[in-house]
Design goal:
Layout (H helix, E strand, L loop, with lengths): L1 H5 L5 H11 L45 H13 L19 H7 L6 H8 L14 H10 L48 H12 L2 H14 L7 H5 L6
Helix pairs in contact: 4-5
Length: 238
């Protein structure tokens, strides 16, 4: 599979799906759901220029330390962490880049994930401000909040329906703006959910991502998962 990918006989999307499967990740287990990378960082431009490297996220760094001040925060958290009982090893991140709650968060508008989310929240929808309501806002939250290190799920590259509230669920309204949470707010460069998926998939298969995807794979599936390489890459999870 690796050789096929290097020879460009299979797409980046197909290669990532294969890697997830080999790593034991599966659509049948929310705790081991397939994980895909955030690949862009431009969610505000009117047009998306895939020939400009500046629109892409740095795939060599964990999503949690894409910003310098957060990077410093995690460095010192790791250096100064000490479990008095000596049971818990040092870590940079107390949460994970993929977990069941995160999958339900993204897929809240689609069954059976809606029902699972309601069960998780003791029989009701979570507070609207904590729900997945906007792609630009979700990216900005990652940049501002050291406790959010969620990567993406494969649906961001092929399934426009999860961005629409086709079932008409009452997801509440945001506290400050009073905006009703309905369909997911898209980046300015996407004119519809289908357009977002088309351009996002195109970005995944772009020359820039093809040249740098292996750096993210090292973090999630490869040699930077644990040990000294993980410490150096600020990639140690609780």
């Amino acid at each position: 599979v690796l050789q096929k990918w290097v020879n460009r006989e299979i797409s980046n999307f197909d290669y990532l799906i294969q890697l997830n499967t080999m790593a034991g990740r599966t659509y049948n287990d929310l705790a081991q759901y397939p994980v895909f990378p955030w690949i862009l960082r431009d969610y505000t431009s009117e047009e998306l220029d895939l020939n400009n490297p500046a629109v892409f996220r740095d795939l060599s760094k964990p999503i949690g330390c894409s910003v310098v001040f957060i990077k410093i925060y995690f460095f010192f958290r790791y250096e100064n962490f000490e479990d008095p009982l000596g049971i818990i090893d040092k870590f940079h991140y107390g949460t994970h880049y993929s977990n069941a709650a995160g999958v339900m968060h993204y897929l809240i508008r689609v069954e059976p994930f809606t029902t699972l989310h309601i069960q998780l929240q003791s029989g009701r929808f979570d507070c609207a401000d904590r729900q997945f309501h906007s792609i630009p806002a979700t990216w900005q939250a990652l940049m501002d909040n050291p406790n959010d290190v969620k990567e993406l799920i494969p649906e961001f590259f092929y399934f426009p329906e999860f961005l629409e509230n086709q079932n008409g669920f009452n997801l509440g309204q945001l506290q400050i703006s009073k905006e009703v949470v309905n369909d997911v707010v898209l980046p300015k460069w996407a004119h519809s959910p289908e357009d977002f998926i088309y351009k996002h998939r195109k970005a995944l298969e772009s020359e820039y991502v093809s040249a740098h995807l292996h750096e993210w794979i090292d973090l999630i599936f490869g040699y930077k998962q644990r040990g000294p390489a993980a410490v150096e890459a600020l990639n140690v999870f609780y």
